[in-house]
Structure prediction request, 155 residues.
Amino acid sequence: MEVAQEYMRNSSSIKDFFSNFLVRRMMIDHTFIFPKMIWLFASFVLLFLRYSPVILGLSYVIIYFLYISVSAVNFLCVRMLLDKFENEGRFYAKMGWVAFTLPMYNFICSWFRLIGSINISNADKQWNSLSFKKESENAQEIVRRDIHNLKGEKH
Prediction:
């Protein structure tokens, strides 16, 4: 999210939505993340409201097949664009299986985008990256504190 924010500030703007692929991709990815997550959490609520788990499961299967359809169309379009490039076209043709797994990969990435959106909205507006070692130390400290709180100890 921070990279997208810096990119938009320095290189582009929302008015480039129709002319710049990267702007369009970032806007779509980060806009549709919230409906995806809302639908997921709403499914659990719907189960408590006695909706049929079979119907909810079927809705997820249908949505997954729709995502696979979009991935397949994208795959075919790129395949046609690579017709003039023999080596690249052969390599890409072997990657057809990705069209079936891409929706699951995008779903997993949506969680990271959601967490990033929440984190950046709560952070100050400065670049705030930490080293892996520092992040690990912070995570360990939080776990230690939580364990102490669960045990009722003071830290």
In short: The helical segments are 2-11, 21-31, 33-48, 53-81, 86-93, 98-122, 132-151. DSSP finds seven helices and no strands in the chain. Residues 17 and 24 are 5 Å apart (CA to CA).
